[in-house]
Amino acid sequence: MKLISDRNPVVVNLTNYLAMNFGANALLAIGASPIMSFYDKEMEDLVGIADALVINIGCLDDAQIAGMRVAAAAAQRLGKPWVLDPVGVGASAARTETAVELITKYHPTIVRCNASEIMVLHGTACKTRGVDSAEPVEKARACAREFAAQHGCVVAVSGAVDYITDGVREAHCDKGSPLMAKVTTMGCCASAVCAAFAAVLPPFEAAAGAMELMGTAGEAAASRSCGTGSLAVNFIDELSLVP
To answer: Cα separation of 153 and 87, whole Å?
Structure first.
């Protein structure tokens, strides 16, 4: 956390409309500087000044996809770390095709997803429920390891126990609270936090550190929350209080 606050990395976010406010506040709370945009004509400039990029496919349209392509290409060319959140991949052909294109052409540094999403990307048959996982993390571990090794990236799978792998190493995080799954865009927030960590740490350490922070803050927030509404506010507070 101190490394992030000391460096104040700029993180460009192409994220869904629901996640913009929550993700931006989370990044500010940990000492990063968020920029939120979809506009393809400014992506070259924005990624040029950024320290990291996060692309979230939660609310797709043609204009957003155009911006994602330009941003991912710029990050790849400039050697900037970038995080892909393949929200709801498998729920529609458009989501799956977009995620696969971004992965195969522009090679994300970290893929932050749920169990169903990584199984779909891996090509393994699984159940899907829109943007929610219908599979446990344990069932997706082998898919995550193989996918990470094949694509040269880190995969962070969120769940009751988060699983992080680069295809060789692996880490687990069993912190957090079941209430976190009831707060919209909590997973999207995790992807943004992964990007901030990736701006200052190597990819595997970044993903593991980000998921650890999410779990620690979520657990602390849940311990003093009356329900999901207060959890969302207390979660941002807890992020800002981590030294």
So the answer is: 18
The SS3 of residue 140 is: helix
Return the closest-CA partner of residue 207 out of 220, 225, 221, 195: 195
Residues of the chain with pLDDT under 70: 1, 125-134
Distance CA 46, CA 52 (A): 10
Q: Report pLDDT digits (tens) over 87-100.
A: 999 999 999 999 99
* Best CA proximity match to 115, nearest among 86, 93, 95, 94: 86
| Dihedral over alpha carbons 135, 227, 240, 43 (to 10 degrees) | 50
26, HSE (Cβ side, Cα atoms, 13 Å): 28
Tokens standing for residue 70: 């330009």
DSSP strand E in the chain: where? 10-14, 33-36, 52-56, 82-85, 110-114, 128-129, 132-133, 154-158, 162-165, 170-173
H or E segment and range at residue 74: helix 62-78
Domains by residue range for the chain, with CATH? 2-241 (3.40.1190.20)
Q: Are 151 and 107 in contact (CB under 8 A)?
A: yes
The DSSP call for residue 188 is: H
Query: Which pTM does this prediction carry?
Result: 0.95
Sign of CA dihedral 180, 213, 240, 186: negative
Question: Over the stretch 152-203, which tens digit does the pLDDT of each residue have?
Answer: 999 999 999 999 999 999 999 999 999 999 999 999 999 999 999 999 999 9
